[in-house]
Amino acid sequence: MAQVATNATFDELIQSEKLVIADFWATWCGPCRMIAPILDELEQEMADQIEVVKVNVDDADEIAAQFRIMSIPTLLFFKDGKVVDKTVGAMPKPVLAAKIKENL
Questions:
Q1: Taking the domains of the chain in order of start, what are their residue ranges?
Q2: Is residue 29 among the annotated active site residues?
Q3: What fold is seen in the domain 3-96?
Q4: Catalytic: which of 29, 39, 76, 90?
């Protein structure tokens, strides 16, 4: 189950031995609503390898600014607390699954 990040908890949530995917989104964003269930499915299927952290850009504006998030949905991929990859925009499940596997 995806964890919800705030300005205060984000740094702690991206520290994991698993690949952490930070999903930058907003309630008013249509493509964000399209990719959310895909991310949920992949997190369940790959629970031993990935964690998803949801970052609502309206609530966690400091984090969005820190990572220069200009468009949503944006996914940042973290290993050992560092960004290793980034995607912008919604994508079909096979494309997102391949992107995750590239970063494992």
A1: 3-96
A2: yes
A3: Glutaredoxin (3.40.30)
A4: 29
